[in-house]
Amino acid sequence: MESIKSSVAVVIRAGSADRQGRILAVRRPPDDPELPDVWGLPAASLRAGESWRAAVERAGRDKLGVELSVAAVLREGAGERPGYRLHMMLCEASIKEGEGEPKVPQRVGGVTQYTEWKWADATELVAGARLGSLCCRLYLREEGETWT
User: Which CATH number, 3.20.20.70, 3.90.79.10, 1.10.150.20, 2.60.120.260, labels domain 3-142?
Assistant: First the structure.
């Protein structure tokens, strides 16, 4: 029987007028086993008994160093990974007032730590989608963009 891993990916939209239409993108580390150095969205695997909302909040704290206000689920999808099936919820959140900008990497062990972050437009997630990044594919579908 194939194992299923549940996760959340987080869409954080830029708030200022000079970054209109941009989202927070993060680069995975070069030693990442599945998507090394790929730009995508912040994400977290759900822990046993953890809600999707709690996973989004934890991703903000443990991976970005900020507190997030969780809004809603935008889309869901699944994809095959070596040895398991990944189920992902694409969620929208915002950085809480007064938190400042993200800081990566954080000093939290046991989770993927990002090497960089930036405000990006949808086209910057196309390369990740082509390489099989489920968070990139879900976001591009949500925005009506293609990657093929």
Answer: 3.90.79.10
8 Å CB contact between 122 and 24: no
pTM value > 0.85: yes
Average pLDDT score over the chain = 94
Q: What does the domain layout of the chain look like in residue ranges?
A: 3-142
pLDDT digits (tens, 9 = 90+) for 86-136: 999 999 999 999 899 999 999 999 999 999 999 999 999 999 999 999 999
Dist. CA 143–CA 141, nearest whole Å: 5
State the Cα–Cα distance between residues 49 and 89, nearest whole angstrom: 16
- Confidence tier at 20 by pLDDT (50, 70, 90): confident
